[in-house]
Amino acid sequence: MSMFGIGGGNRAGAPSGSINPAQIEMATAELDMITDVFNRLVSSCHSKCISTRYSEPDLNKGESVCIDRCVAKFFEVNRKVGEKLQNMGQSATGAGSGSSFGF
Length: 103
Description:
The chain has helices at residues 21-49, 61-95. It is mostly helical. It is a peripheral membrane protein.
């Protein structure tokens, strides 16, 4: 199986071994979005749960529990927002199901 859907097979009539620039662009955009989500997660949970005075080399129990809860909440909110946006997109598509040319 190929990473990001590039290479490794003859899909959609493309010769084996060819790289579709559109797939590269989509994979790059997806990686950028994942990196952004990760960076926002780290920034948010680090500032909320970890003291700026590092007195111990490892997380203490309270910090660890806080990080676990923060990450769980972050992904739950991310999931709910994604579902809401998807529903809004589907209802907008359903409402405008006529011709895109206005006839």
